[in-house]
């Protein structure tokens, strides 16, 4: 029989709730980007895109969690992740303002929403690329809090997956009706990318200074 | 002598027309109250660094409530007005943004002060 007494100690419960709180917060950026990417798809493909996004985020988080210690040792990974996310932001910006700019303008001025259409593959690639960078950031944050409580890590991950799916579908539904709000979502993701680049830069700054100095 | 009916005055009719066209829907009022009320209360009662993360949790909880409401009483198809689904989406986005912008460490520090955290990790 499985002994769960060690899970009910005050220390384990504290770690448990901490990981849940952190996971809930860190699921937010994934939910926004999945919702943003899925909003440009026809209704019957939206559910599939959200599922792809959640599956990709889950697989990546589990894979990254296994090698979290090794990842922490790689200098510049956070910076690269930030650049990748910035590229996703640029692609989304071009979709909003690009060939279908007139339709986006119509949505902005409160007119009928004819969402700029994209293919399922385009949306899936955007979601997966964003998931790579954000899951990396998330795992590194949670790995520090969970420490000796892998059960808390697994539960937090499961909960964040469920919430990510619910949040992404609510956001996608909103953006499909009020497309101009996509700019707000894009601004949030841009902030996440800038924050990752900023923190990543300070990681590589000593190495850069050393390389330039020598 | 009968008093003139002031309600039928053209200026009053114009005003009523303007009021009807610009009157915010119940959902818009609910949105404003659900944002401003808790934000004011939290900024008065909580330490400043905790306000944003706490508001994020409130917004996500309210979004869940609105989603449940929309699930049980779905708005008419193709309705132009702001619906409970819209509020659920807007509060989800607000909650995610507040959670991302607010430093979660302050929240954890507030709920589990440093001493108990140290005990937890020992």
Task: Give a description of the structure.
The complex is a heterodimer of chains A (214) and B (122). The model of chain A is unreliable at 101-115 (pLDDT under 50). In chain A, helix 1 (10-39) packs across helix 8 (182-213), helix 2 (43-66) runs antiparallel to helix 7 (150-177) and helix 4 runs antiparallel to helix 8. In chain A, 82% of the residues lie in helices and 0% in strands. Chain A is flat and about 45 Å long. The longest helix of chain A is centred in the last third of the chain and has 32 residues, at 182-213. By secondary structure, chain A is an all-alpha fold. Chain B has 122 residues and is mainly alpha-helical. Chain B is built from 6 helices and no strands. The longest helix of chain B is centred in the middle third of the chain and has 25 residues, at 48-72. The mean pLDDT of chain B is 76. Classes of the chains: A mainly alpha (214), B mainly alpha (122). Chain A binds chain B through residues 10-11, 14-15, 18, 21-22, 24-25, 28-29, 31-32, 35, 147, 166-167, 170-171, 173-175, 177-178, 181, 184-185, 188, 191-192, and chain B through 53, 56-57, 60, 63-64, 67, 85-86, 88-90, 92-93, 95-97, 99-101, 104, 107-108, 111-112, 116-117, 119-122.
Residues in helix, % of chain B: over 70%
The major β-sheet of chain B equals: none
Main pleated-sheet profile of chain A: none
Shape of chain A: flat
Model regions low in confidence, pLDDT < 50 over at least 5 residues of chain A: 101-115
Secondary-structure element order of chain B, N to C: HHHHHH
